[in-house]
Design a protein that fits this description.
295 residues, 12 helices, 78% helix
């Protein structure tokens, strides 16, 4: 297998891990409260990333006050806010809907980068943004009576978590000039996990003690989500960017909803409607236009 095909195979594996993670987190929110799910997953991820940092013989960075402020802001968006909204959303909606909405990730990142760095989108990219969001809107609004019930609120929470993650990604782009991606990942996950644990410990609704009596299945899902989906898959994503380039790597993200919906149907017993298929087509077409090179 050539180096290029090996990189594609690793990327496809990472996308499968992320797709399965949606069903894993959905199952966890049925066994534990949302804050506990968010906190324990990120603690496990922070530990895994720290171990990986030392295995790669990298050192923790020396941080100036300005750097620490930027990394803390990044942690608030990418870890703390993102994980609370993500787990809260999946507790109210299906893994199928979550997979479709999460596939907007590259498109949301492109839109935010254009707004922050004042890059002109152009008619083609703007059309991609509209089509992509329209596809997700069809899925969110496809509820009985088109009412904004618990399921639709869950969809919107996941969409908001996606915006939080993409917003933090812009900060990462600036921070990556001074630190490696792994160093940034370790610091923001440590900060984010500390904030999540404090939030859970001080919240009356959180039940961290339930982790003591959690089943083997629950802990297996926690380890899968924290180690594989958050730590390992993220490193494969960054490695793919280095080997294949951002544009080709981003195309791999289209497989996340395919794997996500597939596993949700196979293992969660969720139903797929015609609206889900229409929404998926809208997201893929919109993303292709959104990533099209300007002419």
């Amino acid at each position: 297998m050539t180096e290029g095909w090996r990189a594609y195979a690793l990327l496809l594996g990472a996308m499968a891990i992320w797709g399965v993670n949606l069903s894993a987190v959905k199952a966890l929110t049925g066994a534990l409260d949302v804050l506990t799910v968010a906190a324990v997953r990120m603690v496990v991820a922070a530990i895994a990333l720290t171990v990986l940092l030392f295995l790669r013989r990298e050192r923790l960075p020396v941080l100036r006050a300005r750097d620490l402020l930027g990394l803390t802001a990044c942690a608030l968006f990418m870890v703390y806010g993102n994980q609370i909204l993500f787990a809260g959303g999946l507790s109210r909606t299906t893994a199928t809907n979550g997979a479709l909405i999460m596939s907007l990730g590259p498109l949301v990142s492109t839109l935010l980068a254009a707004l922050v760095f004042r890059e002109a989108l152009g008619a083609r990219r703007l059309a991609g943004v509209v089509i992509g969001f329209a596809g997700v809107a069809l899925v969110i609004l496809n509820r009985p009576g088109a009412q904004l019930g618990s399921g639709s609120v869950g969809d919107l929470l996941i969409l908001t978590s996606l915006v939080c993650f993409a917003s933090g990604g812009i900060a990462v782009q600036k921070l990556s000039k001074a630190f490696t991606v792994l160093q940034i990942s370790v610091v923001i996950h440590v900060i984010g996990s500390v904030l999540l644990v404090l939030h859970a410990a001080l919240s009356p609704g959180a039940r961290l003690a339930d982790l003591v009596e959690a089943s083997v299945t629950t802990w297996s899902l926690i380890l899968y989500s924290g180690v594989l989906a958050t730590a390992l898959a993220a490193m494969v994503w960054n490695l793919s960017i280095a080997r294949l380039g951002l544009a080709r790597t981003a195309m791999g993200f289209y497989w996340v909803p395919i794997f996500g919906v597939g596993f949700a149907v196979a293992f969660m017993g969720e139903a797929v409607t015609a609206w889900h298929l229409v929404g998926l087509v809208g997201v893929i077409v919109g993303s292709r236009l959104g990533f099209a090179p300007r002419r």
